[in-house]
Design goal:
Layout lengths: L1 E3 L5 E3 H26 L3 E5 L5 E7 L2 E4 L4 E9 L3 E5 L4 E4 L2 E2 L5 E7 L8 E9 L2 E10 L5 E3 L3 E4 L4 E9 L3 E5 L4 E4 L2 E2 L2 E9 L8 E9 L2 E9 L10 E7 L11 E3 L12 E3 L10 E4 L2 E8 L5 E3 L1 E4 L8 E8 L6 E9 L14 E6 L7 E7 L11 E6 L7 E8 L3 E6 L2 E7 H4 L12 E9 L1 H4 L11 E13 L1
Parallel strand pairs: 5-12, 14-21, 24-27
Antiparallel strand pairs: 1-2, 3-4, 4-6, 6-10, 7-9, 7-11, 8-10, 11-12, 13-15, 15-19, 16-18, 16-20, 17-19, 20-21, 22-38, 23-28, 25-26, 26-27, 26-38, 28-37, 29-34, 29-38, 30-31, 30-37, 31-32, 32-33, 34-35, 35-36
């Protein structure tokens, strides 16, 4: 139909109606797109060519617990897309998809071993430009970490320090009344706890536990206390001892050796009683003598060697020490004896004699040995009198090593069990066979490497290490 306008122009009414319909349809389409972009899980972003890209992601927030796991993310994008994460503990597969095809992205999350919640951003890109981000958060596991798994005390009333690192609240309780702790509870962060024990007046060692409880469970810390009661061998009396309960350094009865590496046995340590980098090679702490072996800032290995009353020593007797050995390939701890006031010109080693009550090398863990060296019986001739035995827990635990020395026999013991027995009548009565007829003095040392300690090599990653001595006691017959 056509009609004239007031100006006289003809108007096509049908054409005008069609234009109006297309305009209304366009408005409806724009309203639909706007509604779609505003709906949950969708974004509209300009694409690289200037158009609008629709993005649908589900879920928009990912939540993971502390464990290693796989999550899924549904992604639909109105253009070819890629996906990436800003965290190295998150991996995505596949790394992208094609236009308008819904893709399922596997989101792999590593275990969160930390002490806090962590988060990551997962970003969807088109043409290299971000069009959508998804937040991934991962919870943390409740963790409480004590600095040690066990504590050992001497027989006296004493206190030691325990550090507890935690990301949650915790409580600490003791199994026995002779153990106390302060504070007994704490929260997130690092807390210093004082663990105290009463004097052990019994004749044997005792054990208890500290129970550490928190939201994620509980753990236990073993507490051991040795006895300081002196068990006197039958027929003997105590003539000298050091219980290492007083002071911070060994007393005047001890004389330190000071010499450079390689002085004997090609050993790698430098023996010194000096302070190196703020550390001592020998110290008294928590009722024990600690002989420390460590690497200094100058690259040298330092350790300690101590002689008890070397100028006088003792002739015959029962010599006993309770010792906790270190571990690590290269360690060579020893409790042994050499003669006092030797004239090395006329009576050199091995003619002078040597008594090794206990030796152990870290390359052969927990295998302790005893040996005798004389002119006729020594390791250079492979004729020394020696015996080795396994002592379970010698590394990391206290055990008693002893020597009974009489005019006619030498016997060594490990926790009261005979290790080596040598008779003068069997070895020979002459000096070259049995030079054990004058005073000897005890020696405590911790060597590093050397002919025996390093026979399988050394592992410096084991350093620093400590040899702990609870006491040294000497008895002689009444």
């Amino acid at each position: 139909m056509r009609r004239k306008s007031k100006s006289g122009n003809l108007i096509d009414l049908k054409s005008q109606h069609m234009k109006k319909s297309r305009f209304i349809a366009a408005l409806f389409s724009l309203a639909f797109i706007s509604q779609a972009l505003a709906s949950c899980g969708s974004d509209g972003k300009d694409d690289p060519t200037g158009g609008v890209v629709s993005v649908t992601v589900a879920p928009e927030i990912l939540q993971a617990d502390a464990q290693k796991q796989n999550l899924e993310l549904s992604v639909t994008v109105g253009a070819d897309w890629a996906i990436t994460s800003d965290a190295d503990w998150v991996s995505l597969r596949p790394s992208g998809g094609v236009k308008n095809v819904t893709g399922i992205v596997k989101v792999s999350v590593d275990e969160n071993k930390g002490f806090d919640e962590r988060s990551a951003l997962i970003t969807i890109l088109t043409g290299g430009k971000p069009v959508k981000t998804v937040t991934l958060t991962q919870d943390f596991a409740s963790q409480v970490s004590p600095s040690v798994s066990s504590l050992t005390f001497g027989g006296q009333e004493s206190t030691s320090t325990l550090m507890i690192t935690s990301n949650c609240d915790w409580e600490l309780s003791a199994s026995d009344s002779w153990i106390s702790v302060a504070p007994a509870n704490g929260g997130k962060g690092e807390t210093e706890v004082k663990v105290s024990v009463l004097e052990n007046k019994t004749e044997s060692s005792r054990e208890g536990i500290l129970i550490l409880t928190f939201a994620g469970g509980k753990s236990e810390i073993k507490v051991s206390q040795l006895s300081d009661v002196v068990n006197v061998p039958e027929g003997y009396t105590l003539v000298w001892s050091d219980e290492f309960n007083e002071g911070t350094v060994p007393g005047s009865d001890w004389v330190h050796e000071n010499w450079d590496a390689g002085h004997v046995n090609h050993e790698l340590q430098t023996y010194t009683d000096k302070v190196v980098d703020g550390k001592r090679t020998t110290e008294i702490k928590d009722g024990f003598l600690n002989i420390n072996c460590f690497k200094g800032s100058d690259g040298k290995i330092y350790s300690g060697r101590m002689n008890a009353k070397p100028s006088t020593g003792w002739l015959y007797g029962y010599f006993e020490a309770r010792i906790c050995l270190p571990e690590g390939k290269g360690t060579w701890p020893a409790f042994w004896m050499m003669p006092s006031n030797v004239d090395w010109g006329t009576n050199p080693w091995p003619k002078c004699g040597e008594i090794d009550i206990m030796e152990e090398v870290g390359a052969d863990p927990n295998e302790v040995s005893s040996s005798l060296h004389t002119e006729n019986y020594n390791h250079t001739k492979n004729t020394q009198k020696t015996h080795a035995m396994n002592c379970a827990g010698a590394e990391g635990g206290f055990h008693t090593y002893a020597l009974e020395w009489t005019e006619d026999a030498i016997t060594t013991y490990v926790d009261g069990k005979v290790q080596l027995k040598a008779l003068k009548s069997e070895m020979g009565t002459d000096h070259d066979s049995w030079p054990f007829h004058y005073a000897f003095y005890p020696i405590l040392n911790l060597a590093w490497g050397g002919d025996w300690g390093g026979y399988k090599g050394v592992d410096e990653s084991a350093l620093p290490v400590t040899m702990k001595v609870d006491y040294v006691r000497i008895f002689q017959k009444k």
